[in-house]
Every structure is written in C-alpha cells, then in structure tokens.
Amino acid sequence: MQKMPENKFEHQVFKTELGWAGIVESAGIICRVILPADSKEDVLSITERYSSSYKVPGYAAEKIILYFQGRQVDFSDLKIKLNAEGFSKDILKAAARIKYGSICTYADLADKAGQKGKARPAGRALANNPLPVIIPCHRVIKKDGSLGGFMGSSGNLLKLRMLRLEGVSV
C-alpha cells in the first residue's frame, strides 16, 4: 500500500467482457476501481467525480480486462492506495489474501483479520471497498452459502458472474 502523492487524479475508462469499467489514480497509484456497468457514461459519471483528467488505459486496466475474460490475474504488483483505517483496513487486507477461485464467509474473514465475531461489521467494511477486483470482496459470502451483499441490489448478479468467472459455484 502506497502513500497517496499530492498530485492531481486521473481516470481511465475501458471496456471489459462484462461492460464498461474504470480506474482512478494519482501518479500511478490506484485509489479507486469502478466495476463494470452497462454504459461508458455510467462509469464516467463516477470517475469524473474524482478527476477531470483522462488517461489512456494502461497496465492496471489491461489486468482488469484479462480478469473479466476469465483469466487468473495477479494484482499484487499494482501500486494501490487503501483509503481505510483500523478495523476496515484489517478487513480489506484480509480480503486481499483470498485466493482466486476461493470463497470465505464474512465470519471467517473477520477471524482472519483478528476480529472474531464481527461478521456484520466486516460486511460493512467490504461495502466500502474502493478497490473491488484488486481487493476481491466478491469472494466473501454469508455463512448459509448465499451471496450476501454487493454493490446494491443489482450487484449480486455481478458478484455471481465474477465468482463463476473464477470457477466458483454458490
């Protein structure tokens, strides 16, 4: 995790197999990932809140595109800014360690983060994940095997599609 420089932010918008996605970064450090949406305008409406400066999609975008093609991608070499503290940061770091094609429960994730018995707060921390895909919060499900939440009411379909890309059936 990198310290965010005091530079201006730039955004990238690009097409994936599941729709348009985006990245917001500053000086090559990723601070926000926008998951696929139906239209480029939907993604631009989010990325432009952070930045009016457009950057041609690069290495990180290529990795996300490959992920949405169903390829196993290692994101560990990307420079990221994790805008979280304390409990939330612990949960997001634990989620970052969930391997491709694997799932865990919110309770197990809380345990792995040293926060035993805090499944619901772990879910709330994941709901604020600024770096989905890079920090794979979609790999966390409820104890009963159901998906749990993901990006609002329509997000569970995307969560299911992402898990299926990785060969996980829930």
From TrEMBL:
GO terms for molecular function: methylated-DNA-[protein]-cysteine S-methyltransferase activity. CDD domains: ATase. One of its GO terms (biological process) is DNA repair. Keywords: DNA damage, DNA repair, Methyltransferase, Transferase. It catalyses: a 4-O-methyl-thymidine in DNA + L-cysteinyl-[protein] = a thymidine in DNA + S-methyl-L-cysteinyl-[protein]; a 6-O-methyl-2'-deoxyguanosine in DNA + L-cysteinyl-[protein] = S-methyl-L-cysteinyl-[protein] + a 2'-deoxyguanosine in DNA. Signal peptide: none annotated. Its EC number is 2.1.1.63. Pfam families: DNA_binding_1. It is an enzyme of class 2 (transferase). Gene3D superfamilies: Winged helix-like DNA-binding domain superfamily/Winged helix DNA-binding domain (1.10.10.10). Residues 87-168 form the Methylated-DNA-[protein]-cysteine S-methyltransferase DNA binding domain. This is Methylated-DNA--protein-cysteine methyltransferase, constitutive.
